[in-house]
TrEMBL record:
Gene3D superfamilies: Ribonuclease Z/Hydroxyacylglutathione hydrolase-like
Protein name (Swiss-Prot/TrEMBL): Metal-dependent hydrolase
Organism of provenance: Parasediminibacterium paludis
Domain Metallo-beta-lactamase: 7-190
Cleaved signal peptide residues: none
Length: 226
């Protein structure tokens, strides 16, 4: 299983021969000028919520790749009005089966409004169970006790968590979250893109190490094996 980071909360996991893209925001990211959204391929696109820094390139990538977009019903309706037809609605609940494994939508403590002001429904995280290992994408979220439920459903190989603070968890809260989800390896996202969420990366790495945890901060465009 590999993970490629495209900046902010946009990343791609390659598993079981499928390319799974998350929260596509590339063209509006000043830190991702070396990445072309037009070069990204996807079989599935998972959308955690409707904010612009998670959906800016969603329509163009979905229409070009014909990927299945998995998202809240409200986002699915919004996409339908934009001409995107290959959409699967999801909400918090039981697992849904996919060719690469199964996925459960879980709680994220945040908000969700589309760029034009339409409702984005409930923000979500996702728990993936695959033959190559289980992983959790928290989406944009505060630290929440609901994370303690995740080990009931998955034995996580890694988690993808926001660490930028201000609008989401910071690195210290993400360390607490590792205990809730019982997974010591975190890929950090949602940091440095703009002023509110600029972090001291060296300090975050040191804090994780001191806690006996592992924080991975791949460069934009970098692919790592997990």
């Amino acid at each position: 299983m590999t993970l490629t980071y495209f900046g902010q909360s946009c990343f791609q996991v390659d598993v079981q021969g499928k390319k799974i893209l998350f929260d596509p925001f590339i063209s509006g990211n000043p830190l991702a000028t070396n990445i072309s959204a037009d070069s990204i391929e996807a079989d599935f696109i998972f959308v955690s919520h409707g904010h612009n820094d998670h959906v800016a390139d969603l329509i163009s990538i979905a229409q070009r790749t014909k990927a299945t977009v998995v998202c809240a019903a409200e986002i699915a309706g919004w996409l339908g009005g934009k001409g995107v037809e290959n959409v699967l609605m999801m909400n918090h609940g039981g697992y849904i089966n996919f060719p690469f494994g199964k996925v459960r939508g879980v709680s994220a403590i945040h908000s969700s409004t589309m760029p034009d002001g339409a409702s984005g429904g409930n923000p979500m995280g996702f728990v993936f169970s695959t033959p190559e290992g289980d992983f959790y994408y928290a989406g944009d979220t505060a630290l929440t006790m609901d994370m303690q439920l995740i080990p009931l459903w998955a034995n996580l190989k890694f988690s993808v968590m926001p660490i930028g603070g201000h609008f989401t968890m910071d690195a210290v809260d993400a360390i607490h979250a590792t205990g809730f989800v019982k997974c010591d390896t975190v890929v950090g996202v949602h940091y440095d893109t703009f002023g509110y969420i600029t972090i001291d990366k060296a300090q975050a790495l040191a804090d994780f190490e001191k806690a006996g945890k592992k924080l991975l901060l791949p460069a934009i465009g970098e692919t790592i094996s997990l």
